[in-house]
Amino acid sequence: MTVGESDPVAFQAAVRAVTQETGAGRTAALRGLGELVAGRPGLRSRAVAALADGLRAPVGADGWDADARREAGRVLAALLRPAAQAPARSVDPDADPEPPPAVDLDLRAATLVDLDLAGAVLGAARFADARFLGATSFADARFTGVADFARTVWHGPARFSRAGFLDHAAFGRARFRADADFTGVRFAAFAWFGRGEDELWEDDPAWETIEETSPAPWDEPNEDDPHWPVAVLMGDYQEWSEGGDGARFVGPVSFRQARFAGPAWFFKARFASAASFRQARFAGPVHLDQPTVDLAGATWADTADDGPVCWPLGWTPAPAGPDGAQLVPDDSVRPYAGQLADADPDVRRAGLAVLVDLGDARPELRQRVVDTVCGYLRMPLPFDLADARTDGQAAELELRRTAQRLLAARLRPSTDAPGGPPHWSGTDLMLCGATLVDLDLGGCHIGHADFTGVQFHGDTGFAGSVFAGAAFRLGGGDGRASFHGPVSFAGARLDRRRGVREVLGEVAGHAGVVLDEAVSPPG
């Protein structure tokens, strides 16, 4: 029998020291706990749970400062890597004992500093609502159970290169504020980077603990969305297309050579920079329609079993070969491909012009073109609109206004003015989570529009606009849009059956709002 298992007093004393010490004393106690447990698999799960308890403590509570969190992360890594998980040597030198089972890790709502779990082997990994400070690495890590990273915030670079997810991986509503590297990752089941709401069935006991969820404050530049991170939709009625917003990437992101054995779901994810999926392999249903995505050399096994499949405009599967169907640029849309991800605003402006010209000429592509321009407008702005702007930032905002004007000009019914663009009738707008500046949809006739969580800055106009239906919130106060400047709904009709006030509900208005419901929806 090993020390600690035969003498639980030693283990309890080590845990108590971690709990009671502060400063340098706590750091020493953490090292002592790690040394005591090393090579003793019977104590690993208890030690991991004790460390997780400390890391879940609020910042500044009981002396859990950055140094203590950094050291606790080091001890965790040592306990979770295979070399440290091996049991003590058997008396029989020829024996080949079974490796110990992977340890579950519960770090929900934890604050983690410079966490390096590269090469670790985990069971169920619960990181929902955690904050990752500094650089974080899960490179070569192996997740044998469900990995839940919902609503996590990554303040520094996040590295998952060559990690393996043997069960579902959930990153809905995660916020990556720096580079994210998923190069060579293997997803054996669901890879979920889509909308950020939890889906619960009516009889799910999780309803009883929803109020205990502790999301990190939504403090992204230009965005005011305090309730969205904990929004829940009813599973009985939920469809793939409903609700919310997905993962948010501000810096470059790589899924090069990643393998998706199950669904690859990026619907409503937002990429602010180039996103490389070069040489990735997809097997199941896919929703990846962001305009900045590069799919050069990627393949699709075409095994979706009638599940939904959506690729970015400009990419299409070629005829299937031995390794599946390769994704290739569509010749009919080739001039646009990749331009909206270019660092040069002039190149992006040219790409937008090519897109709308394409829609003018080909009515069957108009909804796809609108979806692509909406995807561009949903890209997070990396700077605060309240601060003084550089010339480059001013150019970025003007380009965003250009995209809005190009759309609005085609959503207004055609007039007798010669040379005007055609009206793209019945077009839907999917703008959830977008930051829009000086948007003017006055007089536009639109199908259905999703404005949930949209941040409207500057002057906003909906006067005289007509929608088949429009959503500005998920329900109640969840996922509601915010108007940071004056807005007019004079004479607007936002829904065929509901009035403007009912549709808007509890949206936030920080300036003047003009409501005129003289035009009522038909009864």
Automatic annotation (TrEMBL):
Gene3D superfamilies: E3 ubiquitin-protein ligase SopA (2.160.20.80). InterPro entries: 5peptide_repeat. This is Pentapeptide repeat-containing protein. It comes from Micromonospora wenchangensis. The lineage of its organism: Bacteria, Bacillati, Actinomycetota, Actinomycetes, Micromonosporales.
